[in-house]
């Protein structure tokens, strides 16, 4: 095995590699072909003036051996396909090194932007378009590869591949900006951006090409398929960060590496940070396995995939598995990385390699395999005691809406009329919300703090939506959580769409207060909106309620979520995605051009906002959720399990992450949004709309903190008095026997 020069900063950890690597027999042919191709397009021996000839030499290309990478990651590809895939990887790694030498080291941001703006022209989705004449090896290689790759694929696949390729090219400027500002990203930001700039989503798209299948377009954007792609990508990138830490940090001055991020954020030494990154890598691979085994079967049925489509999806997943193990094997052999002391995945026990077979190999793999079980071993309803809350970082301020008093009274009357303070069907001994509880929650105050300038009608509507979502968040786990009735829960969720007609008109008769509340709110909200805005609003409401199904699935498995999966789903479960859409639909928000809303800085801003308010709620609700509700969806608990630490340390980590997200919000506002506005040439009116939208998010962050401090929803003694025990009657849902078995096992373990 080759080894980077100098002393390794840490010993490589034991890696979780659940699938054995295999080697493509066409390796030697790919080596010869790709060297000739690299010389043809100018990657080797570029023409004078096109590129620095010292970026790559023939000896350096041979030592890095990208043909070996592709032979391991695509073990079943026939010779011509392996040649094509290898050429793509030679091109993408050359792009990375070319960008480093030409733009990163000199910190030439203007030149980098001009260079990157040309590259999409060589990737036309419409093959009748004529690209410009290439001026350097990167452009020439991309033009050649694009026309050798996309003609055999559908337009839908071309669009996906174009987007992932453009992302890994464009977001190189994010790394450049961080180097220029000597800024190390926070962990959440890093994972999000690494997916784009690291290229693994691009690799996943190429897997479809290499195994000659396509994921059906109607499920490509579903949660299971996106999670599989994201978990695959994160594992690829985290593994790469471990192997490349020495080169990137000690030799190149890079700041985008997960180990460095962990060092800075958790204030730990390099070996400890490397172990934590490896733990996260393991967690992401186990998330991949869990999603494939538990979420795909129902996805196939719900979208009525035919046998060939199902086979294509499973072939694609096997291709992703091959990539993981093959990528690991290559990292241990390439001169590009430090790899002393790495253990070969080829030494793992042989045997079946398909979905569901990794458990058999786990039994012999020691501590790595056993780590997965700690996420299933939580004992609910334990006493955790009061949470000592830290000092929160809150750089923004807000006022109180002058219509608050009237809104409180009108909300109480509306909730009584809708039935939120009435009995819950099929639940004996539980009255839903009492009026006393509703008053203690004081949701009108929440709206008044988040929307201090809203009119009385707008304030009532805001309070109504928040009350509806909060009631549903309580109602759903009571009715479906303890019964583990996934089938009934999906029917409940799907039925809600019928109360949000795009063309306003007749809806089915509501059968629950939750449906009645939705029908009432939709009619009042959607009437003044355009048809397009109604569709956007309905989609995000559907996504918010569907996120409760994710929580239910974890409850059925009794599984504490993976940290990354939790953070990303928390944006939906806490309602933050919904509040951002409501803001956008405001009069001033409508002035923001769609290309701004789609841009990476805007998504970064909104995600930072969402994470702050969601994690803030987790801190305030921790004791109630642990002791009263037996909840597993709380980031304090997730951090406790992942870091193997106590509650107090976990609380501090969550607060540090909140602080980092608020500071990232400030960073985006101060640097990235002005640059985006200039790049797009926004008008004064559009800039005013953008400024207004940012101010609304700031007020909602501040307003959420004010409400969390004042509301009775998190005051534990009062909550216990107001919420009597719940006893369920009627038929049990699908899967309840498994839940009872898990419960008995838990009791037996703790007896």
Automatic annotation (TrEMBL):
Keywords assigned: Lyase, Magnesium, Metal-binding
KW Magnesium (keyword) present: yes
Cofactor(s) for this UniProt protein: Mg(2+)
Record has Kinase as a keyword: no
UniProt superkingdom: Bacteria
EC number: 4.2.3.-
Gene3D superfamilies to which the protein is assigned, alphabetical: Farnesyl Diphosphate Synthase
Family: Belongs to the terpene synthase family.
Entry-linked PANTHER family: BETA-PINACENE SYNTHASE-RELATED, TERPENE SYNTHASE
Protein name: Terpene synthase
Species of origin: Nannocystis punicea
Organism classification: Bacteria, Pseudomonadati, Myxococcota, Polyangia, Nannocystales
């Amino acid at each position: 095995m080759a080894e980077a020069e100098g002393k390794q900063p840490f010993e490589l950890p034991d890696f979780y590699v659940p699938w054995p690597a295999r080697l493509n027999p066409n390796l030697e042919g790919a080596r010869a072909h790709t060297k000739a191709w690299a010389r043809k397009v100018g990657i080797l021996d570029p023409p004078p003036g096109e590129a620095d000839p010292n970026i790559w030499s023939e000896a350096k290309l041979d030592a890095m051996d990208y043909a070996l990478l592709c032979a391991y990651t695509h073990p079943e590809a026939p010779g011509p396909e392996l040649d094509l895939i290898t050429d793509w990887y030679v091109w993408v790694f050359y792009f990375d090194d070319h960008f480093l030498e030409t733009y990163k080291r000199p910190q030439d941001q203007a030149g980098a932007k001009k260079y990157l703006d040309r590259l999409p022209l060589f990737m036309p989705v419409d093959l009748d378009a004529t690209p410009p004449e290439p001026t350097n090896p990167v452009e020439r290689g991309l033009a050649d590869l694009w026309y050798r790759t996309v003609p055999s694929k559908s337009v839908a696949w071309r669009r996906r591949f174009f987007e992932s390729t453009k992302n890994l090219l464009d977001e190189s400027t994010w790394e450049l900006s961080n180097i220029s500002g000597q800024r190390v990203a926070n962990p959440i930001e890093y994972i999000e951006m690494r997916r784009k700039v690291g290229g693994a989503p691009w690799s996943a798209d190429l897997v479809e090409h290499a195994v000659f299948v396509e994921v059906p377009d109607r499920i490509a954007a579903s949660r299971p398929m996106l999670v599989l792609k994201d978990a695959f990508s994160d594992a690829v990138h985290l593994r790469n960060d471990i192997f490349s830490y020495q080169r990137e940090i000690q030799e190149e001055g890079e700041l985008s590496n997960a180990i460095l991020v962990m060092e800075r954020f958790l204030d730990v030494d390099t070996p400890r940070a490397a172990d934590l990154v490896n733990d996260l890598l393991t967690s992401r691979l186990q998330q991949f396995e869990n999603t494939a085994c538990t979420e795909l079967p129902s996805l196939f049925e719900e979208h009525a995939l035919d046998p060939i489509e199902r086979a294509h999806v499973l072939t694609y997943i096997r291709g992703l598995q091959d990539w993981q193990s093959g990528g690991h094997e290559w990292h241990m052999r390439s001169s590009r990385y430090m790899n002393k002391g790495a253990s070969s995945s080829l030494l793992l026990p042989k045997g079946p390699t398909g979905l569901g077979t990794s458990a058999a190999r786990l039994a012999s793999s020691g501590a790595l395999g056993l780590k997965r079980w700690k996420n299933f071993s939580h004992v609910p309803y334990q006493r955790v005691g009061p949470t000592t809350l830290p000092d929160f970082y809150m750089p923004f301020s807000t006022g109180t809406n002058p219509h608050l008093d009237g809104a409180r009274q009108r909300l109480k009357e509306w909730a009584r009329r809708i039935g939120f303070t009435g009995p819950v069907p099929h639940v004996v001994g539980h009255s839903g919300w009492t009026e006393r509880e509703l008053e203690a929650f004081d949701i009108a105050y929440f709206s008044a703090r988040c929307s201090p300038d809203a009119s009385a009608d707008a304030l009532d509507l805001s309070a109504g939506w928040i009350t509806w979502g909060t009631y549903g968040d309580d109602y759903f786990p009571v009715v479906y959580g303890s019964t583990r009735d996934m089938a009934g829960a999906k029917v409940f969720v799907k039925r809600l769409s019928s109360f949000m007609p795009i063309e306003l008109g007749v809806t089915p008769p509501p059968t629950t207060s939750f449906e009645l509340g939705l029908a009432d709110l939709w009619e009042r909200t959607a009437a003044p909106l355009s048809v397009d805005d109604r569709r956007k609003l309905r989609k995000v409401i559907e996504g918010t309620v569907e996120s409760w199904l994710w929580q239910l699935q974890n409850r059925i498995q009794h599984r504490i979520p993976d940290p990354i999966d939790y953070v990303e789903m928390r944006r939906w479960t806490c309602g933050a995605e919904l509040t951002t859409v409501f803001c956008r639909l405001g009069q001033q928000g409508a002035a923001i051009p769609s290309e701004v809303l789609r841009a990476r800085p805007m998504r970064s801003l909104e995600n930072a906002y969402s994470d702050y308010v969601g994690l803030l709620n987790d801190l305030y609700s921790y004791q109630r959720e642990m002791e009263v509700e037996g909840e597993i969806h709380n980031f304090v608990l997730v951090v406790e399990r992942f870091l193997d630490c106590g509650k107090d340390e976990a609380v501090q980590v969550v607060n540090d992450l909140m602080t980092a997200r608020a500071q990232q919000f400030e960073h985006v506002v101060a640097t990235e949004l002005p640059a985006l506005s200039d790049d797009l040439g926004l008008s004064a009116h559009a800039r005013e709309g953008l400024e207004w939208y940012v101010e609304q998010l700031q007020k909602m962050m501040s307003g959420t903190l004010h409400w969390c401090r004042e509301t009775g929803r998190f005051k534990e003694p009062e909550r216990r008095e107001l919420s009597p025990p719940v006893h369920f009657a009627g038929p049990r849902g699908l899967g309840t026997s498994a839940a009872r078995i898990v419960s008995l096992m838990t009791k037996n373990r703790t007896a």
